[in-house]
């Protein structure tokens, strides 16, 4: 969850940009680049594609940021722009077979707790990659990008109840994949 000071700082960056302060561009990118890349990467899959989408996202952001009337909505607006840009990119991609080796053996979890956490994270990310984009999108926004459900509903442009339902079904699908592949409960 973002702190009040982070929210205020983001609002100030928007206002500075809207008043023509171009140093705000660098600060916005520094604050949001990694988060948006992570989110986009979970939508498009390949790192090179994610970088292309991120670049296009920033172009769209800076083309339209002057028109953002409510600076406090910056995070929600950024994720919306990133999501729309990623989906446009994915729709334009030629369809190719999945390159994931689902039969690859999973090594046993070691005694070292850090190794266990890292392996669990890799398993979750692998399982996320196998979910449909709609489910991967809502899980990434909610759990990995820490976006509140109300904001997710606005980003995806669905009612909050539908967002809750999608989140529930996405969690169930992720759990099913993890149980099938790794024996997680």
How does this model look, in words?
25% of the residues are buried. This protein has 185 residues and is mainly alpha-helical. It folds into two domains: 1-96, Rna Polymerase Sigma Factor, Chain: A; 102-185, Winged helix-like DNA-binding domain superfamily/Winged helix DNA-binding domain (Arc Repressor Mutant, subunit A), CATH 1.10.10. The chain has helices at 4-18, 23-44, 47-64, 74-92, 113-130, 133-144, 149-156, 160-182. The protein is globular and about 55 Å long. It has eight helices and no strands. The longest helix has 23 residues, at 160-182.
Instruction: Just give the CATH class of the largest domain.
Output: Mainly Alpha
- Output the radius of gyration: 18 Å
Report strand %. under 5%
Number of helices: 8
The number of distinct β-strands equals: 0
Helix content: over 70%
Give the N-to-C terminal Cα separation. Answer: 27 Å
